[in-house]
Each structure stands twice: as structure tokens, then as C-alpha cells.
């Protein structure tokens, strides 16, 4: 029963082919046997998973099962889970047993989902390789010498490695789409405000968005049905009805207008990636779509603007980690300032400290206009580019990343080189629109991701296009050698 | 834009981050290269562009004024590093 | 050269909401430490703020009350600094786009004139928790019950020139926020606090001197003393050739002096930026006009009405109009007694004296307005004298019943029976021969004064119950008869 999609597992549960308890136990066994090589989990919640599975089985027996009841998934360790360590990949929260649940967790609990555990991630979601995790890097199942991408690298690796059929992720600058691309799975970053941020530990509040990761577009639609919705506890949550994302998956793509930004097909991209992406676009044409070249002229400014806005917000968001009310406190502080500086100095890793310092600097007196305000102005230019193009076309497509998965340690000494890996994903967080990455081939044996970008609240259209592509291709069915 | 040791020390103090003396130089170099990256923004004239703090021009929703949270002290203080008599403890603050 | 003080004030008024500005925890005062601090107030990872509608309503109402520009789009900013009673490591405030812009209030000066004081702005922010330094030998304890209580920070222009003007301004703002019902005004509990910015300069000079900020003063009297002391200190220092350091000072009420707070090692760099967890607050004319229609009568308007309607003096009208409960009490009493002047005298006299002595709020007065009105009626219809009335008031304060009940129980009814009074008058005249002789031999224009002696004796004999008018009339008639015989 393992290696099935969530949709298939849901059918199996409904048909009584296996119970949620059996299914959960099988996954737990596989995690125990195989996660040593992948390090995709920070915490496995075996006991809780089995009791949730039993409860789900009882619910099904009572005729009260919903579409997600009994399905096992995992959560990025950025979502607060009551009674379970929520580390955010950091030493700072290594001892933090969350006293409350994130709204996303509550939503899955209500749906009767089973949580197998908490997945590995870059510390505080700051990274593109999972190497900044306090718990050591997760590894790419296609080649364990390579990174799975980040920051939701643990979720991507666990899904690609067959340890879990679906997992939550969060995406601030590409943290769902980039690891999905590098691990050959499907990931969706919804419209900003579509999924509640309450209980999702903030990195950059105006960019963060939670979303589903799974093998297929259909599975991400099933997960998004549970995750999406208005939350009165989150001021930035959007009060807009949530459609059933599975209902439109089979709509025809006839007449779908696809735009290809010329900026996304430059010489700096690995030519094998360009080739795979172009082949995928041919497939969409075969499905009835039309294609035209478009332009996002301010694309090159996305990384500069992002690396002011995100660190600025992070420097403030992470001030609460001060060793007073929870989290790491250094040993024997001599005074208050010593407690602050050593707790934070020892509790945070290098990349987190680096971004806090960049943000602190950008907001400091005399620099606000030159950096922060400037970045917010650029942000509007970037958003306008997307708004303009999306009046001409329905979906923008291009590569998710400029390169396939790179070797562990290859970019750790050069933060700027690491940042450039997010060049195609980052602008979308600035604009707030939804985006997906779906598998579309291989380069040197490593997966290649195709990115689909839509207008605000166009998740249905993206999922529909992705699903139709996956009905016509087998890339999402490929699994790494076990 | 290039930062020197004293810049790094000043920023680290503002952010209350202890940085080991031998690491300061590396921080200075890394931060400088990040600032070089973001300085690409300065080439663009944005005089007439309204800053965009949020993706959508949504407005603040209001919460009805009612008490929904009761006393959860014991539960919430289970994760606290040091508590005495219901108070969070920190090294003595001298004013 | 003459010195001149320049004073600007920042007042922090806690808004009287039930729950906090960004969370559903209670704002009630005096709870056990940290029992009113929820996950949001503790800034647990992942928690988010949602803005309280009532805090918005109260802030806008204040803006309308001081005739201010209303911020139709206001924005929350983060003020970043580390302190253990500031859980998020930033205070959510409004720097760039406050909810209330420029407005003004009028204050009454001692010479009877009024002066207009400008209000620069008023903005919403969250209060911090409390650091308790004395509870433990080597540690500071943090109580976050107060963290997240909504504050309206009201910033004045540097328009005041003396401690008295500053106090008059603070009292005016205090009376406005309590009249609006947006702040309980309790200064000892810290619901209404004041930071004073003080500088001095030579009169006629335009440039401001270096100013100091004295923080968190919590009584009108301390505000006056702290400012006076600070002005004196600055003048002394300058006259001795010194300079004023721009700094934050603390007022020590026990020593009645301000002292410098340990200067922070670095200049503050608060790194303000718009809070990304909150969206701009946008209100429209409809919202504002609806609120305007709910504005209660404010002290200035009420004062004018009291002068017009009750013919009160400027001073009485000012005192009685300042607070809603006091005004209501006065008007109720005045209407029952059908005598505003008498009611004003009693409310500002006997009643206020008792309230102050017993530290009692007017709303908790054992003598209600209805009871006081009943008492005044008995003065007016000559049932009792004014002097006896004070005795009755005491008894009413002690819970012995209404005026009529007390008068009846104690037999305090005024004696108006002419025969009884005449007997007492005759008795006093007979018993005080030397004083009668003096009266008779005195020049007629001196006699009026001397009658007081006999008055006193008769009133004493009647235990204060004889009608003073009748006594006086009879005494004069009888003594003058003796003199003219």
C-alpha cells in the first residue's frame, strides 16, 4: 500500500482495503528503517500517529469519515504542534514543546489526518539547501550526496523517498517550490493570505505562506482543501470562500494561454533544464494550450529587494527569541545583556544571524529610505510586472530553479551564490501570487521542476493545468532507487 | 557598500547577538557581499512608486472586544526557562 | 533677563477595553501575575495580532473630542528594542500614520483667561508588562498581565509655559478621556500617566533650550512638583554656567526631585517599520460621523451650559463640569432642591470634603444626589437651619437614613413658634445685663455688630433649632426698644 498517492490511499481506506492504523504503522516502519540515510524528520511522533490512526479508523467505522480521515502526512517543523517539539530547525527551539496548535494543524486534526512527525528544514526557514538545520541536512533521495533544497527540504525528501505521501511546507522565497523541484515532487505555494499563518513560526510575515507538498497535483489539491481558509486569528488571512480544488482538475486546457517570460530562459540556466522545460511546454500545447513570449522586466531586482525585505522583517520577528519566556537560555548569564547576547548568539546558527544582521542594518537610522523603502518600491514594480502579464495570459511558465540539486557543502561558503538558486521563485512571494512546481524531467539523473504561476486566487487553474499535464506524462510517477 | 569590524559589532549589539571575535571578519565580508547584491536596486529610479508593504492592498479586520482567553499561566509557563511565584525570572535589571 | 519654561507633555491613557489591543486576554487590573497573559501576549512563536475594534472606536472618539484631524488610514509600526517586559522585542505603535492628527484643547488660567494648547497627535500602541525588581534578591521578575493593554499616547505641542499650565492641561485631558468613558483615569493604578518634556530659555528667544524628559509621573501634584523642580534645576544649572544634557529623568516623589536615569550606552535606534502582521486601518466618513453623533457633552460645553442655565460662577461651573459623575450629581441635586447655587455650594463644600477625607468616589458616596437634594429642600423650607443641615449630613453619611428621617429621629426641626422664641429672647436679655447695658449706651451704628452676641446665646439656648431670622428680628426689636426708652 506504500508508494500510492494520497488520492489512491483515500480510496483504499474508503474501500476497507487497509486501515489507517495499518497504513500508519507501515509508514512508521519505513521511516524507522530508511530515514537514517535521508534525515528528513526531526521528530517522529509514533505514539500520537497511532492514536490518531485508531481514532480515524473508529471515525470511519462510525460512518463519520471525511475525505482526509486516516491519511498520514507530516508537517514541516515550523508549524506549532501542541505537546510536540516544534524546533523550526533551530537550537533556539530544541527544547520548545509547543503549548498550542497552529491553525493548519487544527484543520488537519479536524479532518482526521494522521501526523507521522515533524520534518527537517533550514533553520527558521532561512536557506535553500536544508544545510542550515540544527539537526543536520536532509538529503536528496535521488542522490544522497546532494541537497534536497530548502527550506522545506525535509518534507520534499520524505515524500520523494516514499516515507510519507504528503507533507506541509512553507514558502517565503521558494521554500516549497525549490525543494519540490530538486526532489521531483509537486509543491504549491498558494496566494498570500489563502492559508493561515497563525502558529506558523514567522520568518518574513509579508512573504510567508504555507502550502501542500505531495507526489501529484491531485494530492496537493486534496491537501489544500484542508489547509486553505479564512482564519480570524490571522489579520492577513483573506476572507474569501474556498472552492473544492479537486472539482476542476479535469477541466480541459483547450485555449489556455501560457506566457513564457524571456527573462526565465537566459543562458545562465543549465541547458538541460531549459530543454526539459521546453519539452513540457510542448506537452501543454499538445493539450490545447497556446504559448506566447512575455516579459517580466524587473525580475533581476527580485533577489535584491527580497534580501532587504525578508531580513528586515526577520530581524524584528526573531527578536522574541530572547531566552525569557521559552526557548534556549545560555548557562549562567552574568547580567541581562549577557543573557540576551549569548542566548541569541548560541541559539541561532550562522545564516540566521547573518540575515538578522542584514535586516537590522537595513532598518537602522539613516538607511531606512535607501534600503527598506526602496525595496518596497521595487516590490511594487515586480508585482506590476506580474499583474500586467497575467492580463494577457492565464499561466506563466518557466523553470523552477536554474540548476538541479547541488552537492552538500557546495555553496555553503558563499551565501550570495546560494541566494541565486531562488532567482525564479522569489519574485512571486514579493507579488503574493500562487505558484507551483511539478516534475518535468531529469538533468544528469536529478529531477527538474516546471514552475506554473497564476493570478491571485488562481490555485484552481494551476492545479487543473498541473493535473492535466500529469495525466499525460509520467514524470511525477518516477521514484528514486530504494 | 562595505562594512568593517566596528559596523558589524554595532549591528550585532543592536540585534543582541554575541559574535565571536574571530568570526567578525567573515561576517563583515559576507554582509558586505549581500549589501553589494542589494545595491543593484539603487540603479532604478523609484521616485513615484508607492511602497508596497503587503502583497494585496487589503485592510485591517477588527476583532470584537471580548475576553476569550482565561488564565493559562501554568500551561504556558511549562516552556519557560525560569519561573518563580508565577513571574518569569531574568538576571536583575538595574535602572 | 527673565527665564521662560517650555513644556510639552506626552500622556499615556490606557483605553478602557475589556480585552487587549491585539489579543483576547483580559485587561482587568490587579490579577495574579501572568494570569492574564495569553499565548499572543507572551509572543509565543507563530502567534499573531488582531486589532480590537473598541480601541479604534475610543481613539477616534478622542480625536473628535479635541477637534482633531482623524487618520482615515492609519498604520501600525514596530518600535524595536530589547527589554524583558517587552515580549516581542518590539512595541506595536503608530509612528508615520497615527489615528489622530493635530487637535487642541483650551485650558483655564488662574487669571480667568483661557489658553489654547495644541495636540500634535494621538496614536494607538500597546503597553508593556511590568518588571519587578524588589521581589527577588538577584533576579528581576516579569509580569506580563499589562502587556498588550491598549494605550492612547497623546502628544502635546510645547505650548505650556509653567507647571500650573501643564497641570491644567493634564487635568483637561483627564476630564475629556474620563467623560468620553474611554479611560478610567486612575492615576495610582497607572491607567493615566504622563511624561513631561521641560526646557528653559530666555523670554523672547525663539530657539528651544535642550530638554529633559521626566517619565511616568502618576499624580497631578507630582506633575506640578516635578516640573517646578526641573525648571528650577535647569535655571540654576544654566546660571552657574552649566549646560543641560538631553536625557531621561525619573521623578522621586519621596525626595521630591528628579534624577537622571542611567544613560543608555548607545543612542536608541528603534528601527521603526510598518508591522507586516497588521494591515492598514481604513475608516470612512460614515464611521466617523456615526461616532460623532455618539459624542457625549464635553466639559467645555457643559461649563458654558452651567453658567447659562444655572447662573453659576465661572469657577463653580468649571469645577462642576469637569467630570461626568460629578456633573450628574450636581445637576440631580440642583433639580431636586430647585436651587443651583445652594446645590453647588454643598457639592463643592460638604460633599467634596467628605469624599476627599474618606477617599471615596462620588459614584460610591453614601449620600446620593437624591438624598442631598432632599436635605437642601429642608433648608429651603426652613425646616432646619444651615448649621443643623451639616449635622444632618453627617448622620446621612453615617448611614442613618434620609434627611427627613434624621431630622425626625434627632428632633432637629427648626423652632418657628414665635412665642417659644420670644421666651428664649427674653431669657437671654434678662440674663446678660452688662451686655444689654453696653448695647443701650452704644452709638446706634455700632449696635448692629453687637447683636451677634445675643444671637449666639439664643441659638445656643435653642440648640441651634430657632429660626435665625426670627431670632434676629425679635432681638433687634426688643433691644432697640430698651435703648430708646
From TrEMBL, chain A:
<feature type="active site" description="Charge relay system">
    <location>
        <position position="151"/>
    </location>
</feature>
<protein>
    <recommendedName>
        <fullName>Glutamyl-tRNA(Gln) amidotransferase subunit A</fullName>
        <ecNumber>6.3.5.7</ecNumber>
    </recommendedName>
</protein>
<dbReference type="InterPro" id="IPR020556">
    <property type="entry name" value="Amidase_CS"/>
</dbReference>
<feature type="active site" description="Acyl-ester intermediate">
    <location>
        <position position="175"/>
    </location>
</feature>
<keyword id="KW-0436">Ligase</keyword>
<dbReference type="GO" id="GO:0050567">
    <property type="term" value="F:glutaminyl-tRNA synthase (glutamine-hydrolyzing) activity"/>
</dbReference>
<keyword id="KW-0067">ATP-binding</keyword>
<comment type="subunit">
    <text>Heterotrimer of A, B and C subunits.</text>
</comment>
<keyword id="KW-0547">Nucleotide-binding</keyword>
<comment type="function">
    <text>Allows the formation of correctly charged Gln-tRNA(Gln) through the transamidation of misacylated Glu-tRNA(Gln) in organisms which lack glutaminyl-tRNA synthetase. The reaction takes place in the presence of glutamine and ATP through an activated gamma-phospho-Glu-tRNA(Gln).</text>
</comment>
<comment type="similarity">
    <text>Belongs to the amidase family. GatA subfamily.</text>
</comment>
<dbReference type="InterPro" id="IPR004412">
    <property type="entry name" value="GatA"/>
</dbReference>
<dbReference type="Pfam" id="PF01425">
    <property type="entry name" value="Amidase"/>
</dbReference>
<dbReference type="InterPro" id="IPR023631">
    <property type="entry name" value="Amidase_dom"/>
</dbReference>
<feature type="domain" description="Amidase">
    <location>
        <begin position="22"/>
        <end position="463"/>
    </location>
</feature>
TrEMBL record, chain B:
<keyword id="KW-0436">Ligase</keyword>
<dbReference type="Pfam" id="PF02686">
    <property type="entry name" value="GatC"/>
</dbReference>
<dbReference type="InterPro" id="IPR003837">
    <property type="entry name" value="GatC"/>
</dbReference>
<comment type="function">
    <text>Allows the formation of correctly charged Asn-tRNA(Asn) or Gln-tRNA(Gln) through the transamidation of misacylated Asp-tRNA(Asn) or Glu-tRNA(Gln) in organisms which lack either or both of asparaginyl-tRNA or glutaminyl-tRNA synthetases. The reaction takes place in the presence of glutamine and ATP through an activated phospho-Asp-tRNA(Asn) or phospho-Glu-tRNA(Gln).</text>
</comment>
<dbReference type="InterPro" id="IPR036113">
    <property type="entry name" value="Asp/Glu-ADT_sf_sub_c"/>
</dbReference>
<comment type="similarity">
    <text>Belongs to the GatC family.</text>
</comment>
<comment type="subunit">
    <text>Heterotrimer of A, B and C subunits.</text>
</comment>
<keyword id="KW-0648">Protein biosynthesis</keyword>
<protein>
    <recommendedName>
        <fullName>Aspartyl/glutamyl-tRNA(Asn/Gln) amidotransferase subunit C</fullName>
        <ecNumber>6.3.5.-</ecNumber>
    </recommendedName>
</protein>
<keyword id="KW-0067">ATP-binding</keyword>
<keyword id="KW-0547">Nucleotide-binding</keyword>
UniProtKB/TrEMBL annotation, chain C:
<comment type="function">
    <text>Allows the formation of correctly charged Asn-tRNA(Asn) or Gln-tRNA(Gln) through the transamidation of misacylated Asp-tRNA(Asn) or Glu-tRNA(Gln) in organisms which lack either or both of asparaginyl-tRNA or glutaminyl-tRNA synthetases. The reaction takes place in the presence of glutamine and ATP through an activated phospho-Asp-tRNA(Asn) or phospho-Glu-tRNA(Gln).</text>
</comment>
<dbReference type="InterPro" id="IPR023168">
    <property type="entry name" value="GatB_Yqey_C_2"/>
</dbReference>
<dbReference type="InterPro" id="IPR018027">
    <property type="entry name" value="Asn/Gln_amidotransferase"/>
</dbReference>
<dbReference type="Pfam" id="PF02934">
    <property type="entry name" value="GatB_N"/>
</dbReference>
<dbReference type="InterPro" id="IPR014746">
    <property type="entry name" value="Gln_synth/guanido_kin_cat_dom"/>
</dbReference>
<dbReference type="InterPro" id="IPR042114">
    <property type="entry name" value="GatB_C_1"/>
</dbReference>
<dbReference type="InterPro" id="IPR006075">
    <property type="entry name" value="Asn/Gln-tRNA_Trfase_suB/E_cat"/>
</dbReference>
<keyword id="KW-0067">ATP-binding</keyword>
<comment type="subunit">
    <text>Heterotrimer of A, B and C subunits.</text>
</comment>
<dbReference type="Pfam" id="PF02637">
    <property type="entry name" value="GatB_Yqey"/>
</dbReference>
<dbReference type="InterPro" id="IPR003789">
    <property type="entry name" value="Asn/Gln_tRNA_amidoTrase-B-like"/>
</dbReference>
<keyword id="KW-0436">Ligase</keyword>
<protein>
    <recommendedName>
        <fullName>Aspartyl/glutamyl-tRNA(Asn/Gln) amidotransferase subunit B</fullName>
        <ecNumber>6.3.5.-</ecNumber>
    </recommendedName>
</protein>
<comment type="similarity">
    <text>Belongs to the GatB/GatE family. GatB subfamily.</text>
</comment>
<feature type="domain" description="Asn/Gln amidotransferase">
    <location>
        <begin position="328"/>
        <end position="479"/>
    </location>
</feature>
Amino acid at each position: 500500500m506504500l508508494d500510492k498517492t494520497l488520492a489512491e490511499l483515500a480510496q483504499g481506506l474508503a474501500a476497507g482495503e487497509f486501515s489507517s492504523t495499518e497504513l500508519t504503522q507501515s509508514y512508521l516502519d519505513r521511516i524507522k528503517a530508511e530515514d537514517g540515510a535521508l534525515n528528513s524528520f526531526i521528530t517522529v511522533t509514533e505514539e500520537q500517529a497511532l492514536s490518531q490512526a485508531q481514532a480515524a479508523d473508529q471515525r470511519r467505522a462510525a460512518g463519520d469519515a471525511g475525505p482526509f480521515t486516516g491519511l498520514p502526512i507530516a508537517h514541516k517543523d515550523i508549524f506549532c504542534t501542541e505537546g510536540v517539539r516544534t524546533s523550526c530547525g533551530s537550537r533556539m527551539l530544541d527544547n520548545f514543546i509547543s503549548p498550542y496548535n497552529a491553525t493548519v494543524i487544527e484543520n488537519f486534526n479536524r479532518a482526521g489526518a494522521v501526523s507521522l512527525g515533524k520534518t527537517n528544514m533550514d533553520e527558521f526557514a532561512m536557506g535553500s539547501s536544508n544545510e542550515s538545520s540544527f539537526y543536520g541536512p536532509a538529503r536528496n533521495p535521488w542522490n544522497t550526496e546532494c541537497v534536497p533544497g530548502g527550506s522545506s527540504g525535509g518534507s520534499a525528501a520524505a515524500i520523494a523517498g516514499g516515507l510519507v505521501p504528503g507533507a506541509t511546507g512553507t514558502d517565503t522565497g521558494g521554500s516549497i517550490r525549490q525543494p519540490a523541484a530538486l526532489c521531483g515532487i509537486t509543491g504549491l505555494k498558494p496566494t498570500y493570505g489563502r492559508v493561515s499563518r497563525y502558529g506558523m513560526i514567522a520568518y518574513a510575515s509579508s512573504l510567508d505562506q504555507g502550502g501542500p507538498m505531495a507526489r501529484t497535483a491531485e494530492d496537493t489539491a486534496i491537501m489544500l482543501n484542508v489547509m486553505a481558509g479564512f482564519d480570524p486569528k490571522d489579520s492577513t488571512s483573506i476572507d474569501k470562500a474556498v472552492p473544492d480544488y479537486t472539482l476542476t482538475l479535469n477541466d480541459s486546457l483547450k485555449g489556455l494561454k501560457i506566457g513564457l517570460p524571456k527573462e526565465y530562459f537566459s543562458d545562465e540556466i543549465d541547458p538541460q533544464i531549459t530543454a526539459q522545460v521546453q519539452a513540457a511546454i510542448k506537452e501543454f500545447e499538445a493539450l490545447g494550450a497556446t504559448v506566447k513570449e512575455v516579459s517580466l522586466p524587473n525580475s533581476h531586482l527580485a533577489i535584491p529587494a527580497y534580501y532587504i525585505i525578508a531580513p528586515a522583517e526577520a530581524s524584528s520577528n526573531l527578536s522574541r527569541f530572547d531566552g525569557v519566556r521559552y526557548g534556549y537560555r545560555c548557562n549562567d548569564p552574568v547580567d541581562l545583556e549577557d543573557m540576551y547576547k549569548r542566548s541569541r548568539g548560541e541559539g541561532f546558527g550562522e545564516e540566521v544571524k547573518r540575515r538578522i544582521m542584514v535586516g537590522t542594518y537595513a532598518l537602522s537610522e539613516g538607511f531606512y529610505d535607501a534600503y527598506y523603502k526602496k525595496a518596497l518600491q521595487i516590490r511594487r514594480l515586480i508585482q506590476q510586472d506580474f499583474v500586467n502579464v497575467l492580463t494577457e495570459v492565464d499561466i506563466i511558465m518557466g523553470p523552477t530553479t536554474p540548476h538541479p540539486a547541488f552537492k552538500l557543502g557546495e555553496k555553503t561558503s558563499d551565501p550570495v551564490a546560494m541566494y541565486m538558486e531562488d532567482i525564479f521563485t522569489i519574485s512571486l512571494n514579493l507579488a503574493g501570487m500562487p505558484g507551483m512546481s511539478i516534475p518535468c524531467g531529469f538533468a544528469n539523473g536529478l529531477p527538474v521542476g516546471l514552475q506554473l504561476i497564476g493570478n491571485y486566487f488562481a490555485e484552481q487553474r494551476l492545479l487543473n493545468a498541473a493535473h492535466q499535464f500529469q495525466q499525460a506524462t509520467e514524470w511525477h510517477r518516477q521514484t528514486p532507487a530504494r | 557598500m562595505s562594512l568593517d569590524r566596528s559596523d558589524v559589532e554595532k549591528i550585532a549589539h543592536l540585534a543582541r547577538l554575541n559574535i565571536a571575535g574571530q568570526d567578525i571578519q567573515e561576517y563583515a565580508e559576507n554582509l558586505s557581499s549581500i549589501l553589494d547584491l542589494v545595491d543593484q536596486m539603487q540603479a532604478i529610479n523609484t521616485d513615484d512608486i508607492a511602497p508596497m508593504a503587503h502583497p494585496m492592498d487589503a485592510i485591517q479586520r477588527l476583532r470584537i472586544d471580548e475576553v476569550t482567553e482565561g488564565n493559562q499561566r501554568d500551561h504556558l509557563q511549562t516552556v519557560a526557562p525560569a519561573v518563580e511565584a508565577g513571574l518569569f525570572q531574568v538576571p536583575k535589571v538595574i535602572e | 533677563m527673565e527665564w521662560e519654561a517650555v513644556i510639552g507633555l506626552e500622556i499615556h491613557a490606557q483605553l478602557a477595553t475589556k480585552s487587549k489591543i491585539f489579543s483576547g486576554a483580559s485587561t482587568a487590573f490587579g490579577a495574579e501575575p501572568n494570569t492574564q497573559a495569553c499565548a499572543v501576549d507572551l509572543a509565543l512563536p507563530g502567534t499573531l495580532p488582531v486589532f480590537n475594534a473598541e480601541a479604534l472606536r475610543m481613539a477616534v472618539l478622542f480625536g473628535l473630542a479635541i477637534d482633531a484631524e482623524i487618520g482615515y488610514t492609519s498604520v501600525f509600526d514596530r518600535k524595536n528594542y530589547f527589554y524583558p517586559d517587552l515580549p516581542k522585542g518590539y512595541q506595536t505603535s503608530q509612528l508615520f500614520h497615527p489615528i489622530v492628527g493635530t487637535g487642541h484643547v483650551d485650558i483655564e488660567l488662574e487669571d480667568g483667561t483661557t489658553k489654547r494648547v495644541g495636540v500634535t497627535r494621538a496614536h494607538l500602541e500597546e503597553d508593556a508588562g511590568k518588571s519587578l525588581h524588589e521581589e527577588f534578591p538577584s533576579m528581576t521578575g516579569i509580569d506580563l498581565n499589562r502587556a498588550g493593554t491598549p494605550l492612547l499616547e497623546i502628544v502635546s505641542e510645547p505650548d505650556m509655559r509653567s507647571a500650573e499650565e501643564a497641570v491644567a492641561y493634564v487635568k483637561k485631558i483627564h476630564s475629556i478621556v474620563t467623560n468620553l468613558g474611554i479611560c478610567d483615569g486612575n492615576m495610582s493604578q497607572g491607567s493615566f500617566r504622563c511624561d513631561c518634556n521641560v526646557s528653559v530659555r530666555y523670554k523672547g528667544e525663539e530657539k528651544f533650550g535642550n530638554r529633559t524628559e521626566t517619565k511616568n509621573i502618576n499624580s497631578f501634584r507630582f506633575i506640578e512638583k516635578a516640573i517646578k523642580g526641573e525648571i528650577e534645576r535647569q535655571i540654576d544649572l544654566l546660571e552657574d554656567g552649566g549646560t543641560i544634557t538631553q536625557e531621561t529623568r525619573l521623578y522621586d516623589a519621596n525626595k521630591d526631585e528628579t534624577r537622571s536615569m542611567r544613560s543608555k550606552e548607545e543612542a536608541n535606534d528603534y528601527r521603526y517599520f510598518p508591522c507586516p502582521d497588521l494591515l492598514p486601518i481604513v475608516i470612512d466618513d460614515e464611521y466617523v460621523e456615526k461616532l460623532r453623533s455618539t459624542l457625549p457633552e464635553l466639559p467645555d460645553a457643559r461649563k458654558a451650559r452651567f453658567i447659562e442655565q444655572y447662573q453659576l460662577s465661572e469657577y463653580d461651573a468649571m469645577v462642576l463640569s469637569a467630570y461626568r459623575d460629578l456633573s450628574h450629581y450636581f445637576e440631580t441635586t440642583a433639580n431636586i432642591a430647585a436651587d443651583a447655587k445652594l446645590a453647588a455650594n454643598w457639592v463643592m463644600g460638604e460633599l467634596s470634603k467628605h469624599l476627599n477625607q474618606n477617599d471615596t468616589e462620588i459614584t460610591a458616596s453614601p449620600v446620593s444626589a437624591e438624598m442631598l437634594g432632599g436635605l437642601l429642600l429642608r433648608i429651603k423650607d426652613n425646616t432646619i437651619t444651615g448649621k443643623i443641615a451639616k449635622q444632618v449630613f453627617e448622620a446621612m453619611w453615617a448611614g442613618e437614613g434620609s434627611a427627613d428621617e434624621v431630622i425626625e429621629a434627632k428632633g432637629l426641626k427648626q423652632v418657628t413658634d414665635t412665642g417659644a422664641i420670644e421666651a428664649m429672647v427674653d431669657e437671654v436679655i434678662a440674663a446678660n445685663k452688662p451686655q444689654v447695658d453696653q448695647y443701650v449706651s452704644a452709638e446706634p451704628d455700632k449696635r448692629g455688630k453687637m447683636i451677634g452676641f445675643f444671637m449666639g446665646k439664643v441659638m445656643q439656648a435653642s440648640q441651634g433649632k430657632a429660626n435665625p431670622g426670627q431670632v434676629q428680628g425679635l432681638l433687634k426689636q426688643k433691644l432697640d426698644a430698651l435703648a430708646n426708652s
